[in-house]
Amino acid sequence: MAVAVAPPEAEASPAASARGGNAASTAHSGDDTPSSSGISYRQYRDESDLAAVMDLIDNDLSEPYSIFTYRYFLASWPQLCFLAHDNSSGQPCGVVVCKMDVHRGKQLRGYLAMLVVDKRFRGKGMGSALARMAIKAMIEGGAEEVALEAEVTNTGALALYRALGFIRDKRLHRYYLSGNDAFRLKLQLPLTPLAFERRKKEKDAILGFPEEMEPADSAVAEGAAHEAEIA
Ligand SMILES: CC(C)(COP(=O)(O)OP(=O)(O)OC[C@H]1O[C@@H](n2cnc3c(N)ncnc32)[C@H](O)[C@@H]1OP(=O)(O)O)[C@@H](O)C(=O)NCCC(=O)NCCS
């Protein structure tokens, strides 16, 4: 089936769109968002979407995932999963599944785990629209960077991520069951007020200083108290 799907509005990169408008902003939590392109995008709702997510991904990704893996992502980060539906048939035709957590006790990092567009709908901007929606939701959640892995032979996906601003971080040898290598890709995000606040709190907790007191002031105060004791 050939379906005419106009590309979503062009966007330089999700990092840039964090500062301004974004095609992703047309997707609202749980609500269908009809678009003139004939495709609707919406957030994952609940287990009633699970079968559609699994079907899309199992058909296309080389790695087999168990239902536990799907539930791990979808139950914990439903706000980071988006589905695309073909308006004319009502059928799901694309999905992105992600997570977000603190990486090595430091940065809040988003992770784009799975991105698939039904073969019949490819090359029309859906893959990048779904990825941008997920990245925008990560930015709203305070993420400072996004990471993912893509097979070194997956030129289409690598081109898509490069266009979104991802850069190659490292090569992971024999990462996939197929024996193929992966590239770890990363996208640095602008520091939003939420991310800045989180980073400040963490720093204060590690240093043990009250938020309003600068470390230098505190050290001076401690030093003065110590000197008074000696005197
Ligand atoms: C990768 C995938 C999600 C892309 O979906 P899509 O809707 O076709 O992608 P888009 O139309 O948004 O493409 C955006 C850009 O990515 C690049 N791109 C996408 N597919 C490409 C291909 N096959 N060859 C070269 N470049 C490609 C292009 O730069 C494109 O921009 P352009 O159309 O302006 O040239 C889709 O091919 C897919 O589902 N593949 C199988 C699953 C998979 O590999 N997922 C990625 C796992 S990391």
TrEMBL record:
Signal peptide: none annotated. Residues 39-190 form the N-acetyltransferase domain. Residues 1-18 have a biased composition (Low complexity). One of its GO terms (molecular function) is protein-N-terminal amino-acid acetyltransferase activity. One of its GO terms (cellular component) is NatC complex. Residues 23-40 have a biased composition (Polar residues). Residues 1-40 are annotated as: Disordered. Keywords: Acyltransferase, Transferase. InterPro entries: Acyl_CoA_acyltransferase, GNAT_dom, NAA30-like. It comes from the Eukaryota. The keyword Acyltransferase applies. Pfam families: Acetyltransf_1. Belongs to the acetyltransferase family. MAK3 subfamily. This is N-acetyltransferase domain-containing protein. It comes from Monoraphidium neglectum.
